[in-house]
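Format notes (please read before filing issues)

Several people have asked whether sequences and structure tokens are stored in separate files. They are not. Every record keeps both together, in the order shown below: the sequence lines, then the token lines. Line labels are part of the format and must not be stripped during preprocessing.
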Amino acid sequence: MTNTDPASTASPGGSTARLIADGRATLGIELGSTRIKACLIDDSFETVASGSFEWENENVDGVWTYGLDTAIEGLQAAYADLVADVQKRYDTTPTSFAAIGISAMMHGYLATDAAGELLVPFRTWRNSSTGVAAAELTEALDFNIPLRWSIAHLVQAAIDREEHVPRVASVTTLGGWVHRALTGRDVLGVGDASGVFPIDPATRDYDERMLDIAQQHLAEHAPAPTLREVLPEVLEAGADAGSLTPDGAKLLDPSGRLKPGIPFCPPEGDAGTGMVATNSVAQRTGNVSVGTSIFAMIVLAEPLKTVHQELDVVTTPTGDAVAMVHCNNGASEIGAWARVFSQFAAALPGAGEVDQDAVFQTLLDEALTADADAGGLLSFNYLAGEPVTGVEEGRPLLLRTPTSRFTLGNLVRSEVDAAFATLAIGMEALADEEVEVDRLLAHGGLFRTPGAAQQLLAAALKTPISVQATASEGGAWGVAVLAAYLAAASEKSLAEFLDDNVFAGAEAVTETPDPTAVAGFESYLARFRAALPLQGAAAAATPA
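Then the structure lines:
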């Protein structure tokens, strides 16, 4: 398991400095929704160095997007920050690695022409403008196609007669785009690919029957590219996904010190790397990821009986079917409130530097002292539309009645409960399917602060929640582990590798649902459901 103090780690095969200088450390890079992070691990899977770059999505002409120039800038900056961390800690400079892995946000629409040029600005998972296409595809395929899936974006573009559609030569994810820029290979890990188009668990590839149906459906709306030709090749974890090209080395490290030829694992989405980071790739295991979005994933032992609008069926990095409840809106609003309180603390006379972790810790501790139902307060964390609850365009709101108890603790508890409310609604579909799970682990930045978030999530989902030491490591560490798996893939399954090599002896802290907290959240959720129509009214009254 990981150790979050890089300075305390050492490789059993020699010093960490020697391991890095010899090119035996493994690099993972994740392009997350608010941060691009680079993570270097040793041969014991301990984090030995890291680097990062902050970025934010933008709403440009009604479309949530990230500039790809910024993606490259952030990729280079995060890598340079990691190199600086290595130099500071170990007095050496990396020039090669045992392997590299790329991870990024799943879904969305990143279409390029035959020359590799972007045809329209990158449309992220956050966009909810694909309702017509998603509904048509879901009915035609008898398989839930969520609004954010890449195939929904492509078909919607055809329905809308967008002029670029006939020129589409490739549709990929952000992770796939970065991987291609570094290796020249147009491939995706099967988990990432499962958010582009449905995967057949028997073949671990795109479902051929559904490809034929979708192709016919696409052609009805516009001159259409051949799906099999424009979608990336699908690879399972442990497969050879190419190596760093000379141009890729210069792109990642403009200083010219990084050598080409480093092997890459298949690029994976944040769902797949989250499964790895929580050791949740075996059947009947599951995890909850809390970040800008929030989602729960349960690895299925049996196929779902019916199609559910609330449930995606994606896959693990090895192609096993996973039921996924994905909510577009997660902890961003909690973070916004924390920034406001940080600014207040810094503005106090005589205030020194404000520690952000201390602010979060203080606020979340206050949430545990609050009324179980948040004192009658109600919050909506909807910065964007939310398909699970049928909200097309979101507006963050804080509501209270004249009799509500407006305290700091109730305010924070209301915001945390809001982050979990939509997930709880979506998880009801899993209960209807009688899906069983042996363990449910939580991870993401919110769980860097121990205790409160974990206890409130347990109450919201009415199930024990475990948090491991890897909880805040995220996808960069997870994809670094997938890159390390390249050397063991011929000998062990990914589940065996994680159990035997990565998580052997790992400890987890488990919180069970408190009955009083469960009853309080149920009261909160009832108010949340009843007030959902306010989202439509707020959006209509305050155009973006």
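For reference, the curators noted about this record: Residues 332-434+442-462+514-541 form one domain. The chain has 18 helices and 22 strands.
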